[in-house]
Structure formats: structure tokens, C-alpha cells
């Protein structure tokens, strides 16, 4: 079954993978459990000292490099994209190597700050989790390429 996780959906997929594939005790998002034993989703370092929330999230468009041959690369037909963000919590790179070895692959990386923007499940026909918000760039007349490919995958 195809899977498309957007922002929190991607984060939930990462937590589920950590809990049920890696069997990491106490794997969680630090947003849900600030005292998680294994915070696989964690507060961005530049957000740690912020106490007045307001408009302090990671907002705006950021560049992301895609892994050649990934579902994201096939959907966009490009190796570099720019997508809009609105969040404070990110994939925790302390777990990157372990996740990758077990099959949850980082297929989109922000090279400027080494953030995982897209994850895909190795061997799955269509499993894409994105940290950004593709719906912000999608219209009825010009649907976002990830939505188009997700629907195509569902129709298969």
C-alpha cells in the first residue's frame, strides 16, 4: 500500500520505524515526549533557546538535494527542489546511520544544514515521507508532483 507522510506524518513514520524495526526503547518525538530515551525526532538546535514561540518556526522555502532513482527524484524529475517548511522538530541525525542500514533511506537532504527532508522505505513500491508541506505549492490546475505520483501509485 502506498504511503505519503507530510511533516508530522513523516515524523510518525520515523518514530514507528524506530520502535518496530529498530526496536529502540523509548523511541519518540521530543515534541510528544520531551524526555524520550531515543528522540528520533528532536527539536532543531537553533530552536532550543527560544521561549517566545510566535513566528520562530523554520518557515519558508529551502533547497533539498534528491537521491537519484528515488521516488521523489522520479516524481520531480529533478535532483534539486525547493519546498516550503513550517515546523520546529526534525529528523535526528544521531539515528541516521542506524535507520539507513535498516532500510529507512534519506532520499532528500538539505545540504546547507544537513537536514533529512525526505525518507523512503527501501524495497517498498511507494513510501515517501517529507518534512515540508507540498500542499502549499499545489493547485487544482497544477497539482504537486508528489501528489500526482502518490495517486498513480494508489491506482496501481
How would you explain this protein's 3D organization?
This protein has helices at residues 8-20, 71-76, 96-102, 145-155; strands at residues 3-6, 27-29, 38-43, 58-66, 80-87, 89-91, 104-110, 115-121, 127-130. It has a single domain (3-43, 57-155), classed as Class I glutamine amidotransferase (GATase) domain (Rossmann fold, 3-Layer(aba) Sandwich). A hairpin with a 5-residue loop joins β8 (115-121) and β9. The chain is built from 4 helices and 9 strands; from the N terminus they run βαβββαββαβββα. Strands 1-9-8-7-4-5 form a 6-stranded mixed β-sheet. It has a 3-stranded mixed β-sheet with strand order 2-3-6, covered by helices on one side. The relative contact order is 0.21. The mean pLDDT is 89. 24% of the residues lie in helices and 33% in strands. The N and C termini lie close together (9 Å). It is of the alpha+beta class.
Per-chain topology:
Blueprint lengths: L2 E4 L1 H13 L6 E3 L8 E6 L14 E9 L4 H6 L3 E8 L1 E3 L4 H7 L1 E7 L4 E7 L5 E4 L14 H11 L1
Parallel strand pairs: 1-9, 2-3
Antiparallel strand pairs: 3-6, 4-5, 4-7, 7-8, 8-9
What sequence of helices (H) and strands (E) makes up the elements? Answer: EHEEEHEEHEEEH
CATH domain topology:
Rossmann fold
What strand line-up does the widest sheet have? 1-9-8-7-4-5
Class computed from helices, strands and strand pairing: alpha+beta
CATH architecture group name: 3-Layer(aba) Sandwich
Helix fraction bin: 10-25%
What share of the residues does DSSP label as strand, in percent? 25-35%
Uncertain segments of ≥5 residues (pLDDT<50)? none
* Overall tally of structural domains: 1
Q: Describe the main β-sheet briefly.
A: 6 strands, mixed
**What is the averaged pLDDT score?**
89
Gross geometry = globular
Amino acid at each position: 500500500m502506498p504511503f505519503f507522510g507530510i511533516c508530522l506524518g513523516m515524523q510518525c513514520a520515523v518514530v514507528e520505524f524506530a520502535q518496530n524495526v529498530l526496536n529502540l526503547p523509548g523511541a519518540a518525538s521530543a515534541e510528544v515526549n520531551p524526555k524520550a530515551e531515543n528522540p528520533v525526532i528532536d527539536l532543531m538546535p537553533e530552536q532550543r533557546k527560544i521561549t517566545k514561540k510566535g513566528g520562530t518556526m523554520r518557515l519558508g522555502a529551502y533547497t533539498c538535494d534528491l537521491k537519484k532513482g528515488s521516488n521523489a527524484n522520479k516524481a520531480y524529475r529533478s535532483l534539486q527542489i525547493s519546498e516550503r517548511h513550517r515546523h520546529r522538530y526534525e529528523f535526528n541525525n544521531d539515528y541516521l546511520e542506524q535507520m539507513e542500514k535498516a532500510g529507512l533511506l534519506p532520499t532528500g537532504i538539505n545540504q546547507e544544514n544537513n537536514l533529512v527532508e525526505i525518507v523512503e522505505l527501501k524495497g517498498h513500491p511507494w513510501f515517501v515521507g517529507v518534512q515540508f508541506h507540498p500542499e502549499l505549492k499545489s493547485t487544482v490546475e497544477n497539482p504537486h508532483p508528489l501528489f500526482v505520483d502518490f495517486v498513480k501509485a494508489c491506482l496501481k
